[in-house]
Amino acid sequence: MDYNVITVLGPTATGKTRLAVQIADYFNGEIISADSRQVYKGMNLGTGKDYDDYIINNNKIPCYMIDIIEPTEEFNVFSFKELFNKAVSEIADKVKLPVLCGGTGMYLSAAIQNYKLNQKDIHSKKELEKLSFEELKSLYFKLNKSPHNTTDIVDRNRIIHALMILKSGNDNYADTSSIKSFTIGIDPGREEIKRKISSRLKIRLESGMIDEVKSLMDNGISHERMVSFGLEYKYIAFYLKGKLSYNDMFQKLNSAIHSFAKKQMTWFRKMEKEGVRINWVESNDFIRTKTIIESAGFRSS
Predict the structure, then answer these.
(1) What is the mean pLDDT of residues 195-209?
(2) Domain identity same for 111 and 147
């Protein structure tokens, strides 16, 4: 068997975490999160940190890359790549199987495709300073086509700083040619994804997601910073500032999450066109998935 990582990917609200935990439990693995917002402490309901999902058969499956930095700190694909490589080594040292799980396309590509940005598109700082704000944004989105949040594009200086990080990060990009991922994708179909998104959003709002955002803002996270995290944090921050009614907030947020899920699927199809084989399943049915994984040569612990 050539594979040394199992990856579970899919659009938001499809049950990736629970399936990954069952896989890790059965195949003696530990989980690495590929989610660009779950790295932040205190951002729980809005990012879908379903802690109970990590407990199975009275055993808590370890998970890397969750709750590792404060919301005031910066994190990007290069930060992820460095910590991903470290986590894979640590898990392998335990003679366990790394199970990568998430939906942030660029992080997944960085991990299993040895994804590199196009360095020739990144100019020197002096050249970047000559560009307009819109030109800088266009360049940023050319290099980062599916950002989960917009922390890097609040102003000119932050975009320039982000682009220089991309350049320096690409200069020192760690090799992941040794990563051979057997990849599972969950795709229940567009209508079912929409239903799951809307249902989950209602549950999270009822469970205190607005209080979570309010608490973060009360503890010094600025309105602008909350907006930059996108999706739940953006629209709830607008609601708390009185810029949206509750109904408008719900409708706009629900629609934005649907659009985000569609973009995620577009990224995954792009990965397939680039040579990544994704074994698609319609749900997080472990029995069905286990059979597919065992067909690739994996065996239970």
Answers:
(1) 98
(2) no
